[in-house]
Amino acid sequence: MPHKHRVKPKATKLLKKLAVVPRAMPWRVIEHARNVHEIRFDNVRSGWKQSALLSSDHHWDNPHSDRELMRQHLEEALALRAPVIIYGDFFCAMQGKWDKRSNKNDIRPEHAKGDYLDQLVTTAADWLAPYAMILAVIGPGNHETGVAKRHETYLIDRLVEAIKARVPQSPVRVGGFSGWVRFQFTVCGSERHSRRLWYHHGYGGGGPVTRGVIQTNRRAVYTIADYIATGHTHDAWIMPIQQQHLSDFNVVKHGEQLHICTPGYKEEFADGFGGWHIERGGPPKPIGACWLDWTFRGHQIHTEPRMAKPGLQRAA
Fold first, then answer.
1. Closest to 213 in 3D by CA, of 180, 196, 235
2. Residue 176 within a domain
């Protein structure tokens, strides 16, 4: 007699939780190249509103990562049916064999096993599964590329595969260390508007005075985009830069390029007692992510960025 497949209690609990995930989103993801994706909104009308969540540096497996705030933002994105874009360092992943940065105090009990990297992927996919339908693009950061160099495995590729194994309908795609997302808005079934996001995980130390804002002047020169989003330095700011161009009809037009730095969810300073961040003279850092809120009015798509921080509620 053939052995009947039985769902384990843990899996049953997960499947029940997934039952509340909406199966239809007002957008879809199209992959044009390995780091070029399009998020298409097809039903834009007068009074239309939509949001997207930009985030980085979750360091999800680190004990100092604020998972409750992370969950709060993902729950809000789920309620809003907003696409979520993650550009690097979802994992901390520093406790592997031969990693010189490893510290037994910085590992969660569920990951302290012989298959450490496998445990990171499995537990993260379980944790993200309830939000699988709003995950759009996830790219690697220096922590994931560090694992690839030391251990020859690509954690983000494996994470996306694991999420899709749990929720096959998930639109999530693997992005790059840097890449593009085109937000395509179809108005009244025919007219099209678009906004271009260029993301880069980030680099450098941010600077104790400039907090990396000086990089906006460089990026504005070599990148033609509506939004430029970075992370890595765990700073939080939104810097609009005004630009001009000459239209095809010889009319001078003004535009705005938004530069966004997202801080992430890892609290490294705490009470300042000690640790790597304290020893190198690192200051207290903010935590959170950034919302892009769009509205359609006056025949135009209007963007309003805002930081998603602890204690801040979504504007009505």
1. 235
2. yes
CA neighbor of 173 nearest in space, from 23, 37, 2, 14: 37
Residue 41 lies in a domain: yes
**CA 144 – CA 43 distance, rounded (Å):** 37
Say if CB 260 and CB 305 are below 8 A apart. yes
Provide the CATH number for the domain around residue 287.
3.60.21
- The DSSP bridge partners found for residue 278 are none
Note down the domain range covering 172: 25-308
CA distance 55 to 52: 10
Which pLDDT tens digit goes with each residue over 25-55?
A: 999 999 999 999 999 999 899 899 999 999 9
First to last CA, the chain: 60
The answer to the question of residue 12 being in a domain is no
Query: What are the tens digits of pLDDT across the range 274-312?
Result: 877 778 777 889 999 999 999 999 889 999 999 997 643
Burial pattern 248-286, b for ≥16 Cβ within 10 A else e, equals eeeeeeeeebbbbbbbbbbbbeeeeeebebeeeebeebb
